[in-house]
Amino acid sequence: MRKLKKIHISILSFILISLIFGTVTYAWTSLSEINNIDGLTFSASSGDELELSFDGIEYFNVLPFTPLESSVDGIRLYDVTSIDGINFQTGGLRPVGEAIANEHYLSFDLWIRTSQSEHDIFLVNDVSKEMEFGDERNGTYFVSKGVSWRSPHTFFNGPMIEDTVEAGDIGIYYGHDAIRISIVELQDENNLNDQRAVDELKTFIYDPSGNPDRGYGSPVGAFSYFFQRTLIYQYLPTAYPPTSYRLSEMDPYNPYQALDNDSLVATLQETDTKDSKDKTYYAGKVRINIWVEGWDADAFDAIDKDIVQIQLQFKAARKAL
C-alpha cells in the first residue's frame, strides 16, 4: 500500500484507512463469519497549524502507522451494532455480548492540538460521490472497489418494487454502504485544564452513504435477504442511533466559519504548553470508531471481500451560533 505524501493545507488533517472486508454472512443477526481487515494502513497528515498524536505527548504533522498495528495477521472486524457510537454489541443468533475494540471493530484515540485562534474541530468535505476506488484527493471519503455477487435468493432490496433482486441476478455491491464511523470526544487526561463533565463532551455518528432509507434498521436489503435465506423472522429495532447523513459546511466567504454544527466533533481546551513562538496550545482528545453496522441494509454477504478506502478530513473553525 502506497504511503501518502505530506500535504500542507491550512488547519486540515487527513486519515487514510484501507479495509478489506471478510465474510458477512446474511446479516449481523446470523452466525456471521469474521470480517478480516487485511493489510490495514493508516496515515494522517496536517497543515502546520494542526498537530496530531497517538498518545498526547509526541505530536506530528504526519502520523506513523505503527501504533495501530495490532498483529501480523491484521485487525479483524465482525459486523456489530451500536446505538450510541460508544458501546458495541454482537448479537442475533450469536450470543449477545459486548463487542471488543480492535477485535470486532476498529477503535483508536487521537489527540489534536493547535496554537491558532480556531479551536472547534469539524469533520468536513465528503467527496465520496466525486471519486472512484483508487483515486486520491483532498477531503473525506468512503469508497470501495465493489463486489460482483450473484444472489442465491429472491429478496426485496427497496425502496421501489423494481428494486427486487431475483435469484440468480448478478449485481455490484459496495462495502462502503455499510460502514459507520463515530467520533467520541474524551476528557484529555494529559491536560489538567480540561475539567469538563462527560455530558459536556460530543459524540458524532456518521453514515457516509448519505441514505437514511437504507440506514439503521431498514426493512429492505439485508433484512429481507436474511429472512429469505433462513426463513427466520427478526424484529426490527425500535430505538435508533442519532446518525448524521451529512457533514458541516463552511461559509464560502469565510472558510474558518462553520454554517452549521452537524459534524462538530471536538472543542480544544487551553493547555499550559506553548509553541516555539510562545503562543498557547489548545488541545483535545477524540476516539474514532469504525465498524460494519449489522443493522444496515447493505450488511450481508454481497460485500464479502470488498476493499474500502477511507480518508477523514478535519478542519478547525469557529462553530455556528
Description:
With 321 residues, the protein is mostly beta strands. It has one domain. The chain is built from one helix and 25 strands. A hairpin with a 2-residue loop joins strand 20 and strand 21. The radius of gyration is 20 Å and the shape is elongated. The model is unreliable at 1-14, 22-47 and 70-74 (pLDDT under 50).
Strand content: 35-45%
What is the domain total for the residues? 1
**Residue ranges: pLDDT <50 for 5 or more in a row?**
1-14, 22-47, 70-74
Radius of gyration, rounded?
Answer: 20 Å
Indicate the mean pLDDT. Answer: 81
Helical proportion, percent range: under 10%
Number of continuous helical runs: 1
Secondary-structure element string: EEEEEEEEEEEEEEEEEEHEEEEEEE
Shape, principal axes of CA atoms: elongated
Q: How would you classify the helix and strand content by structural class?
A: mainly beta
- Quaternary structure: single chain
Biggest sheet descriptor: 8 strands, mixed
Distance linking N and C termini: 42 Å
β-strand number: 25
